[in-house]
Amino acid sequence: MPPDGARPLRIAFVAYRGNMQCGGQGVYLWFLARELARLGHRVDVFVGPPYPDAMPFARRVTRLRNQQYWAGWFSKDRQKLIPDPPLRVLHPLEFYELGASYLGFLPEPFAFSMRAFASVAEALRAGERYDIVHDVQCLGWGLLGLRALGLPLVTTVHHPLTIDRRTSFIRDTNLREAIGTMTFYPVGMQSFVARRVARLFTSSEVSANQIVQDFGVDRANLRMVANGVDTELFSPDPAVARDPHEVLCVGRASDPNKGVATLVEAIAKLPGPTRLTLVDDDHPDDGARKRAHALGIADRVDVVGRVPIERLLALYRRAALVCVPSLFEGFGLPAAEAMACGTPVVATRAGALPEVMRTGGGGILVDPGSADALAAGIGELLAQPEARAELGARGRKGVLGAYAWPSVAASTAAVYEEVVAERRGRPASSTTSAPAGQRRATASSASSARDANQPGI
Q1: Which of 319, 402, 390 has the alpha carbon at shortest distance from 356?
Q2: Domain edge (last residue) among 402, 429, 447
Q3: Of the chain's two ends, which shows fewer C-beta atoms within 10 Å, N or C?
Q4: Please, what's the b/e burial string for 118-131 (b: 16 or more CB within 10 A of its CB; e: otherwise)?
Q5: Which is nearest to 154 in space by CA: 12, 26, 19?
Q6: What element of type H or E holds 63?
Q7: Are the CB atoms for 155 and 201 separated by under 8 Å?
Q8: ∠ Cα 21 399 197 (to 5°)
Q9: Strands 275-279 and 243-250
Q10: To 10 degrees, what angle do helices 385-402 and 353-360 make?
């Protein structure tokens, strides 16, 4: 139950992608909702695809449609660009999504936010009541409609979308691709909405600084609450033998920020027995596999695909060490998960990784973007089994103290209480970092959408 006999809160989560394998936001949603329910709070979830695993702890889970046309446009899969059923395209929001995808925009956050607004509004009309709405990194215009209905609104931003946009610019090879990057990411919408929520959660000082700089959010509205790790699930298993030559990496080779290409080069610099296991999409065009072929070490790099959680656990427990070679991380969940499993980590001094490694204490840091530095760090630990065991034990203890989900959920709920107490008896637009004139315009435009017809969206 909530502390000190406080009334359980009625929480509505809105998350435009809910599956754990779609990224950190899916993991965050599932575990935070579970822990809040364990604390006695009532949790409803409004979520887009890919949908989460079963959430028996939630009172209700409402799955909101999104055909993700933009993914079909990116993969040039025309079949995914056909509405199902075809007549759905006659609906304005569906038509917008399809058209925006063809034009190279990312329509998903906006479209989801409008569906979430309509679905939550429908629930309110049916008699539901919520003390707070928690958005997980969508920051779409529809959220301002919920705010205009008088619902206190908070959001979580693991890192601002500007980071992804800068990474995309690194990949671009010509002016056309650069223009596509500029138009694809809805940075303007997200920054506008971020400045108008009651509180914004983020998980590291690096991300906080980036959010303030890129989104213009008032630092007074930021709350530092670390991401959590399921320390019951991610745990050591003495029965699993460590492979003294295996390096594990969990990251997408297609994302330059993850530094996978540099790691493959580092493996090529290490003695022959050293092998890399990469948890990434397993397809013939995987960048890590191509780089390994070019370097003549294809037999030492194993791309295992997006594995189920049981297999991921087994990989963490079996590896001699985990490498996180990123150029930026808003938190660095694989590092925390590895330490929770008692596996030492070699990570780069990039983004929030120094914060996570300093807190967990279960590994070493090397310079980012350097295959030589990675090779030296990995080689140093592989040569010292006693040091690896000591770092693994220290990391497990550090993660238990700082990143266990029960304490993360309790800290999150404390911020909810802060917002609810602040908003009690006051208009929803009273707390914002937006200028006063913009607040009036936002409230006016959002209230005009108050009577949206949910079944048609």
Answers
A1: 402
A2: 402
A3: N
A4: bbbbbbbeeeeebb
A5: 12
A6: strand 60-63
A7: yes
A8: 60
A9: parallel
A10: 100
Residue corresponding to tokens 């925006």: 100
Nearest Cα neighbor of 149 from 169, 129, 179, 177 is 129
Are residues 428 and 375 both part of a single domain? no
CA-CA distances (angstroms) from residue 270 to 276, 286, 303? 11, 22, 19
Instruction: Return the sign of the alpha-carbon dihedral for residues 255, 258, 262, 264.
Output: negative
pLDDT per residue as tens digits for the range 5-57: 578 999 999 999 888 776 678 889 999 999 999 999 999 999 999 899 999 99
Q: With CA atoms as reference, report the closest residue to 7 among 445, 319, 421, 439.
A: 421
| Number of domains making up the chain | 2
Cβ(403)–Cβ(386) under 8 Å?
A: no
Residue 107 shares a structural domain with residue 208: yes
- C-alpha angle with apex 46: 43 to 48, nearest 5 degrees? 140
Q: Is residue 233 domain-resident?
A: no
Cβ atoms < 10 Å from Cβ of 178: 13
Reduced to 3 states (helix: H, G, I; strand: E, B; else coil), residue 43 is strand
Question: Model pTM?
Answer: 0.82
Say if CB 223 and CB 199 are below 8 A apart: yes
Kindly state whether residues 43 and 107 are assigned to the same domain: yes
Is residue 385 domain-shared with residue 415, that is, in the same domain? no
Write b or e for each residue in 315-343: b if 16 or more Cβ atoms lie within 10 A of its Cβ, otherwise e. Answer: bbbbbbbbbbbbbbbbbbbbbbbbbbbbb
Asked if 372 and 423 sit in the same domain, the reply is no
Q: Helix 108-125 and helix 187-194: axis angle, to 10°?
A: 40
Q: Report the side by side order of strands in the sheet with 363-366.
A: 301-303, 275-279, 243-250, 319-324, 345-348, 363-366
The CA R_g of the chain, rounded to the nearest whole Å, is 23
Domain housing 67:
3-228+406-456
Query: Does 308 lie in the same domain as 321?
Result: yes
Could you report the per-residue pLDDT of 141-158, keeping only the tens digit for each? 999 999 999 999 999 998
For residue 347, is it within any domain? Answer: yes
